Write the structure tokens for this entry.
Amino acid sequence: MKKLFYLPTLLLALLLASCVKDDYRMALPTSPMALMFVDASSENGTGRQNLLQKIFDLSGDDDAGIDMKQRLYFFETADGNLGLCAALYNADKMVETITDLSGKGRCKVLDKAGDAFSTVIDSAWVLGFDDDAMLMMGPVLEADQKSMQNRVLRMVAQDEKHGGALSPMFQALDTIHAPIALVAQLQAFPESVSMPFMLGVPQGVDPSEVVLKAGMRVQDKCLLMRGKTLSFNKAIDRQLNEVARVFHPIEGHYLNTMSADAFMGMFMNIDGMEFLPLMQNNKNFQAMLMGANMAVDMNKIIKSIHGDMAIVFPELASQADNFNMSMVAKLSDAHWITDLNYWKASCPRGATLSAWDRRGFHYQNGPSHFYFGVDFDSKPVLEFMSGTSAQLARGALKKADNPISDVVQQHLSGAIMGMVVHLNGLQVEEGPLAMLLPFLQTVLGDVNTIAYKPTNKPSRR
């Protein structure tokens, strides 16, 4: 009877031990810069299959021995390499697939090292696998391929004591319940995209210490994200949580002013007095307003904001101080208009501040232009409008001819902050993001818009 009593316990222990030993996720990097999974849901199953068919030149239902019931992981390492990790249910089928690819001239003959194999696909991507895990990393120059093969084989051999599934980044990712999920250090994004996520981060803190954590789903060609910024540094994390109290629920007044053709838009509902210190502490926001701030007191204007605000960038800027933008916001007052004569007298040499139309003014300093004004016709609530061109400033208050979709507007309405990025405007020609986007678009399907909102509960006035 004692033997029967201990049998279930013994079987459970053996089962748990085998799960730990065979966990393909241990092959993930231990210190990734970005980590993402795509679940085996029907929503993204076709895209996953398309990606693997593209990589391994598969046809029909052939899966190369990859377990399509398990999550597919993408990652970026600290040294800028991109990677893909998947579970294998049949390593022999993967051997057959690579042998076929080698016969087509797409990869080298397999190298065997113990129980694992490695090769180089398309002269750039290193592939390694054993009975449980498949790992692909690159792109790699020919001179570095041998060392990368050794690195990939070491990662495939990582166990439950040293594996990537033990990293803080993975642990954060594993708590997200969504068909697609992402954790990424802010240094993984272009500065123009990471700008709103750095609001409230203490000066001197490196973007590598701030992490975006988000769950995602695809709807009507839109990737809808819900997430938060966090830090594994407890002091920084406390600061980020405090910052969320500055933002209030977006009422949605300006969501339809962003064109579906614009690259990026940021939406929020703020009290300018509370928001100003955050903006002053953010180098990218400061760079964005630097040109106008040489004569126009933007701090006073920001302080007068009370309610919804939208900042829209028609295209991706190569630098923070080289951009086109429009900005619109609800105002509590416009007392700063009485300072205009002083601002005119304070213009730098060669710069001018003059009347633009009955509602606004035009500041010019060389090639830099800033148009701004107040719509007094919108009483009892005044509205501020501005732009780097007269056309952008005039259009800031108007509903766009082709606004962002209803799906995106509904996703952002009521959130404490919203950001919209159109992928057709994200023309990144080099770097990891340029190489990652085609893979993601293959997996996610015909996605053309990303819309993000925080999960933080809004602060009520």
Observations:
- The chain is about 30% helix and 25% strand.
- The longest strand covers residues 211-219.
- Residues 1-21 have pLDDT under 50 and may be disordered.
